[in-house]
Amino acid sequence: GDEMARQGRIRMDELQTERRLRSAHEALGEKCHEMLARGEAVNADHPVVSQLCQRVRYYQDELTRLRSERVAHAEA
Fold first, then answer.
1. pLDDT value at position 74?
2. What is d(CA 65, CA 59) in angstroms, rounded to the nearest whole number?
3. Contact 50, 44 (CB under 8 A)
4. Which residues neighbour 35 within 8 Å (Cβ) at sequence distance 6 or greater?
5. Torsion over CA: 50, 56, 60, 63 (sign)
6. Which residue has the higher pLDDT, 6 or 22?
7. CB–CB of 53/44 below 8 Å?
8. Which residues are within 8 A (CB) of 32 and not within 5 positions of it... i.e. 6 or more apart?
9. pLDDT at position 29
10. Which residues contact 70 (CB under 8 A, 6 or more apart)?
11. Is 10 in contact with 62 (CB distance < 8 Å)?
12. Distance (Å, rounded) from C-alpha 22 to C-alpha 15?
């Protein structure tokens, strides 16, 4: 019972992180589109672009961690 509850919590965290990753990707895409529409170059050094890229990387890493945790607990 406890292990199934733990697996359920990990899966819920995984789904929430997937949603947050999609949202971060969308925000990054919108910012890049906005910059291009104004004729600006999209540069990773731009403060907002850099912050959004960091957010995407964070959620990618978190998703990888959660998936690994879920698999490790499923095999235990």
1. 77
2. 10
3. yes
4. 41, 42, 46, 49
5. positive
6. 22
7. yes
8. 42, 49
9. 97
10. 7, 10, 11, 14
11. no
12. 11
